[in-house]
Amino acid sequence: MSKPLILVTNDDGILSTGLDPLIRAAEAHGEVWVVAPDSEKSGVSHAITLTEPLRYTQVGQRRFALNGTPVDCVFIGLNHILPRRPDFVFSGVNRGPNLGFDVLYSGTVGAAMEGTIQKVPSAAFSMVSRGSFDFNEIGAAVDSMVARIVLNGVPDGVTLNVNIPDRTIGEFKGFKVTRLGNRQYSNEVLTREDPRGGKYLWVGGTRVTNELSPDSDTGAVAEGWGSISPVSPDLMAHHAVKHLAWANVPDDQE
Questions:
Q1: Greater model confidence, 205 or 68
Q2: What is the model's pTM?
Q3: Where are the strands (E) in the chain, listed by range?
Q4: CATH homologous superfamily of domain 5-181+212-234?
């Protein structure tokens, strides 16, 4: 029986040291291929490139840099670069949290979601820190979670969003399954001036308000837990269908 084939990607770019603990953890369970953006692509969500050419460069053994988004990396990796369909897609480890509404903006989560859409068990990993992001500090936690995912699998149609705090947040207590918390950024828009006197804007959002309920990912991480939130690319608001019965009116009855 062949070893599992595992695709690793991220949104911080091929040079990010956050790839290292995830690659090491995955290598304990299978053959790892890396396809990551050639530069940082944070905050691009589930963007896919349709109007520009994509190019990739091999930068190491089974390691490739692509001039596209994290979703491009997964799509091109699965359908062009890898020798066969992977058994898992792992994205990260992201430099910073992907909690609550972050999942709507995150390229890290977007890449893992693309794996889910392509029917490959997938997970996104992020590190939460108030320090200098020593990714080696969370290596054991990444190893543990990757091992559990490889052993137990991922439910169909679901992406696992994993956030791991370091000791600057609190003593690591282990992992718990959580829901997405309410995480709100402030709405600053900063005005700056370039060297030629032109104005440009910079999105602020430096102040963050987090829900602290212990069953939420935001609250669990604040208490030192690693959060595992099952999320889905299915954006359908099923609970709202019955409230839209007023819209089910044939044209001839208008």
A1: 68
A2: 0.94
A3: 5-9, 31-37, 56-60, 63-66, 88-95, 122-128, 159-165, 174-177, 183-185, 189-193, 199-203, 208-210, 225-231
A4: Survival protein SurE-like phosphatase/nucleotidase (3.40.1210.10)
